[in-house]
Amino acid sequence: MTGYDIIGDVHGCASLLTRLMGRLGYRVGESGAYEQPGRQVVFVGDLVDRGGEQLQVLETVKRMVDSGSAQIVMGNHEFNAVAYDTEHPDRPGEHLRPRSEKNTNQHRAFLDQVDGEARAGYLKWFAAMPLWLDLGDIRVVHACWHEPSMRVVEEALGSNRFSAREQFVRASDTEDPLYEAIEVLLKGPEIDLAKHRLEPYYDKDGHPRSRARVAWWRENATTLRQLAVLDGNFRTASGEAYPELPDVTVDPAESSYTYRGDVPVFYGHYWRSGSPEAGSDYTRRSACVDFSAVKTGNLVAYRWDGEDEIRPGHYVLSA
Ligand SMILES: [Mn+2]
């Protein structure tokens, strides 16, 4: 393989995917799948959720993976779909992801659009997706490349993918170390602000939050201000702008997430907006490819041609 095209979270946007495949130079081959000699697509997961063309996205992508013109890693929405579908072996009627009104509503678009036998087939496919891919010259994961979490997964699963229902049961048990490892890889690590004696912040819906995302992609980040990202339009309880986080050094466990590899890592998940920006969307060795396709109408890929440092000119936008 001479090159990889890493494609961000598709979230059921089949038309954008078609347009992006064209821009990247893929054509439908005899097998019925998009292909391009010498190149392979790598999807970062989250094919489903939200968008209106989920079945079409699944058909297109699975055909590519089956024919060998693409690879894929699992996103948190594929994991959630499997957990929502899987009954707890010891608690009949209960599912690994509880079928609460909130979870069901979040999942509605997938349940409505992907039905019956097709759903069963795709869930089986989701369940077996690798949680990360180390392709030698590049690495791909849905949310965070974190080797200690990968070691926990390998210990529990025997590899980088699930192979038994029992493993999903463990991954859904908040007391099990596998739960946290999967959270880190598929949803990204978080810092507890209360541990730093900081007040919760309030998101745009007025919900208090005490956890901040870790900007694991920021090179050389060591202080709380450098490492933590608050979500959305954050305010204090009294409605004022939340103060800048203190520039204090965090403990080694919290800064262990910082990516220090020499190999470029590609990830999605973070709902970035606008066009790729140095420092927040890409660094020398990392590039986010999720630019909120379902919200912004812009599905994004990174066209990798062998470089060991990210080149912003290699981003390709569907829009
Ligand atoms: Mn995601």
Automatic annotation (TrEMBL):
Basic and acidic residues bias locations: 86-104
SUPFAM superfamilies: Metallo-dependent phosphatases (SSF56300)
Highest taxon of the lineage: Bacteria
Domain annotation Calcineurin-like phosphoesterase: ranges: 6-181
Ranges where the record places region Disordered: 86-105
Full protein name: Metallophosphoesterase
Organism of derivation: Mycolicibacterium arseniciresistens
